[in-house]
Predict the 3D structure of the following.
Amino acid sequence: MSVIVPIHGPAVAPAPAPERVGVLLVNLGTPDTCDTKGVRVYLREFLSDPRVIENQGIFWKLALNGIILNTRPARKAKDYQKIWNNDKNESPLKTITRAQAEKLAASLTDRGHLLVDWAMRYGNPSMQDRIEALLAKGCTRLLVVPLYPQYSAATSATVCDQAFRVLRELRAQPTLRVTPPYYRDPSYIDALAQSIKSHLATLPFEPEKIVASFHGMPQAYIEKGDPYQAQCVATVEALRARMGMDDKKLLLTFQSRFGFDAWLQPYTDKTIEKLAKDGVRKLAVVMPGFAADCLETLEEIAQENAEIFMEHGGEEFTAIPCLNDSDGGIQVIRQLVLRELQGWL
């Protein structure tokens, strides 16, 4: 008598969910709180990145943990407190980046399979948390958008580093794209020009000069091949051409230097001081390297550098807001995203 043994094949895999595309806007980062403890946590993460401080040797670690993290957080906490969004208990950078993501998503509602989120490279919400959230919602393709018009290893590249770091732990990785820098994209230059004109039209004075201030970088990084300086120059040259200004009217400078090494020059604070001493009485500063207002624009430029200008003879000073979540700013991001999503939509 024969016995028939049923043969069961492997369980049938569930049908795949409809593919979704995730878009993740990423900005630099911010402390979770504006007290010394919160700033210390943020600075430790930021200054421990070898993209930011390339020499992470024993002397740097001793300086970081023995001196910097014991002195700088208290000072920077006071600066954050000057600009803190007390209504939401968060930094303006977080408020604005969230608004950028929300408005971008609202402008893309006709594409139901597209999900927009946002993250900070340092601090919260973390890139890991938001990438995992997008994957959990069925995103099999991911576009990471570093919110830096000009590329540098210390900004754009470290966003890529972190995205790759998150993905390398996954068995089922999404297909990944990263948007390129947009330092001379016509939509970006047009939005900058329009924002400058619109802001100046609200003033009771006309600035004699406009300073375009970009975040600084050690000169040594440029000598090693970082394209950041060249892209900042290209942005200002395009903006001058768009606005009909020369290098005497629209100046290029670099701010936020740190440590004792030579950084990109001319320095913003020294330039503003000299302009005031040379007789310039009315000055505007625009910060084209920042997609959103933050400590470096709202406190360092709008407050510290305004004081420098006034103390040395200046009379009228204005800091022109970043593109932020303005219509023009969102249009720049939208066009960048749609261009890089070609073939996925």
